[in-house]
Design brief:
There is one protein chain. The protein is mostly helical. It has two domains: 43 residues, no CATH class; 85 residues, no CATH class. It contains seven helices and two strands; from the N terminus they run H-H-H-H-H-H-E-E-H. The protein has a two-stranded antiparallel sheet with strand order 1-2. Helix 4 runs parallel beside helix 7 and helix 6 packs across helix 7. It is flat and about 50 Å long. It starts with a helix and ends in an 8-residue tail after the last helix.
Amino acid sequence: MTKENVEATKPQFTLVFFSFKKLTPVEKVLFCPYLKFMEEHVSIPCQRVCAASLQQQNSNALTLVEQMLPMSSEISATVYCRLIEIFLYYRSKTGFLSHPDIGHSCLRDLDMFQAYLWLCVLAESLVFPA
């Protein structure tokens, strides 16, 4: 395979990140919230949680999810900070846990994990003892 063929098969999103580097600092500040929203929209199963909540109207499970879901980001941040404390010197191929890019990925993954937990509660496939 030639270099041109390899370049042609790369995913389109690499072009976004390449052009992102060319943005001015002000443009980056304005564009970053959009990218974060799109990343969350793709990663976190919000539509599935909403659909499952329609099946659980007026239930204890829905009440629990309604109380806990708004706290997801705070919970993720607390867990992430604790991870950094426990694994202070852990380094992956891409860097230390405390690196901002890795922190962003960790927080996204923790938010996604919680959303899936709440989805399981709503789907009654994860039940807490009374």
